[in-house]
């Protein structure tokens, strides 16, 4: 078992890529050849610093933000997340839902034949009453529907444990049976599980502690690995961590109570899923929801505004806090696409003159 201890995901990814290149063994898989290393545990000291800024990785912050809110809302529809990452539709067995949707399992999936249980509510209540409780296990794997299932989407992260630390902080440990380090472990997982941890800590009124990811089969597909393996200081020199240089900061998730936050999340997802054609029931008085609304609205404009989409989306993002990590990442993601589009125009123009 290898252990990676990092300040945040921005620091963890280069360490992970170097470890996999050094110790990985090539194996076949149903999705192509992979590099696999021995089981790896990653410990994040500051999990709320969750946004990736490595250009070569080109993580989609709009998708990561939407997916995290979608999970907290307990959703399992494929249409919503597919607006931000169209390949999500490839993981649906029926074209409508995602069988392994984590949030749906957190909040309402289990105990078929019985009343559904909101696992998050039970855990929050238990650890608020008894800070020393050691039985708060969040289950994502259901043997009744997952074991032996050959479908497109069964949970990779199968269980998690919430425990309070000696100073009252909330710690989260997640156990993953199979972890793609680029798209999963140091991509989406680092975002949505840190979101979950912060959400639960706010529910309990306690500080955020550490997030630990235990990955059994820790791997990367060779074609993807070759595209991002330059995200390493030994390859490209010094790589800035904008959280350390204080160019960005992670804003607290929200300041309202959880019931209102859940309503605001549902309201925002509804408007995002309907092209922001409906007015909100809420204002922008909450800094987090102002940022989230700005991000998702900017993405909608980028998807729908034709040739002017880059400028319109960037103008939208300029309306929010310019040191917020999500906003900065969103601007960089849009600008990379704008630069690529401009380069394609130049190459096309040059080709016309040959």
Give a description of the structure.
This protein is an alpha+beta fold. It is 44% helix and 15% strand. The chain has helices spanning 9-23, 61-72, 79-82, 102-107, 119-129, 181-204, 222-228, 233-236, 258-273, 287-304, 309-317, 325-352, and strands at 2-6, 25-27, 34-37, 40-44, 137-139, 157-164, 170-180, 208-221. A hairpin with a 6-residue loop joins strand 2 and strand 3. Helix 2 (61-72) crosses helix 9 (258-273) and helix 10 runs antiparallel to helix 11. The radius of gyration is 20 Å and the shape is globular.
Topology:
Blueprint: E1 2-6, H1 9-23, E2 25-27, E3 34-37, E4 40-44, H2 61-72, H3 79-82, H4 102-107, H5 119-129, E5 137-139, E6 157-164, E7 170-180, H6 181-204, E8 208-221, H7 222-228, H8 233-236, H9 258-273, H10 287-304, H11 309-317, H12 325-352
Parallel strand pairs: 1-4, 7-8
Antiparallel strand pairs: 2-3, 3-8, 4-8, 5-6, 6-7
Features:
44% helix, 12 helices, 2 domains, 354 residues, alpha+beta, 8 strands, Thymidylate Synthase, Chain A
Inertia-based shape: globular
Portion in strands: 5-15%
What is the chain-wise order of helices and strands? EHEEEHHHHEEEHEHHHHHH
- What is the name of the CATH superfamily of the largest domain? Thymidylate synthase/dCMP hydroxymethylase domain
The averaged pLDDT comes out at: 93
- The second-level CATH architecture of the largest domain is 2-Layer Sandwich
